[in-house]
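Researcher: Good morning. I'm working through a list of sequences from a screen, and I'd like to move beyond sequence-only analysis. For each chain I'm collecting a predicted structure so we can compare shapes side by side. This is the next one on the list. No need for commentary yet; just the structure.
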Amino acid sequence: MKIVIPGGTGQVGTMLNRALSAAGHEVVVLTRRPVRAGEVGWDGTTPGAWAAEIDGSDVVVNLAGRSVSCRYTAPNLKAMMDSRVRSTEVVGEAIAGAARPPRVWLQMSTATVYAHRFDAPNDEATGVIGGQEPDVPGYWSYSVDIAKAWERALDEADTPDTRKVALRAAMVMSPDRGGVFDVLLRLVRLGLGGPVAGGRQYVSWIHEHDFVRAVEYLIARDDLSGPVNLAAPEPLPQRAFMSALRSAAHVPVGLPATRAMAEIGAFALRSDTELLLKSRRVIPGRLLDTGFAFTHPTWPEAARELLARRGEIRRRAGVGPSSDRSRAGA
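Model: Good morning. Structure tokens for this chain:
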């Protein structure tokens, strides 16, 4: 198959490209700065010659959008909104104008669309959409607004010959440098992997292998469209999540952090506390109901597998365990 991935140079796009290319597919990445074979330039906002790559392709997986790993200032929030919505619109325009449109369009969305809650998990059928929760920072609702606008742009695209799926993805865990797992592991090895603000908030996640397998599954399943949660079936409280990661990394202690300390840490990392404090209790109802079997359904096992593979990657790169520990501050 020919698979086009707009915005495919980030962590998720890189690992998806790697896996799909290894499976024998032709992968074309649309990026603002093409430098490698298989990359084609686009700006994510205006039609252009890049649309020819979509015409005649089999699948589009749109991952474009400004990273959420930033301070949630008004300009950054606007950039998140604009980049997601406009890139979705322009991909829809390209598909609508194609003589041979792709048969399926997988559009990245986010599990952040669901409400901050502790009482019950959110699946696609019964999950509570966020934005109206009491006792949370007001700007959290803007993240939900972004998610809803993102999916609305997908819904409104006039592409009758192309099946559309919104990927409500949780954090994708891979051993690659710079990803969320890398950040969490560094915190653990610095002794900072304890509960944050009590640690009751749920963490939803998905192993990279299951993310890729779910994408392949959704490409193949012509009966699935609309929102689909891409998350492992067993989210767990942040306290237990970090404890399992510490255990996998053989780090016995993780210092706890108050909400105020989390604010300071997020500021230092140029990130935002919503990523740490919002309870994302998301389960993959539609995947499970249609028979998808997770390879890594539980976090303790997934964390051990990621640690083992990370070590292998570093050994191949000529980085020994001792230098790894010294750089991580262990």
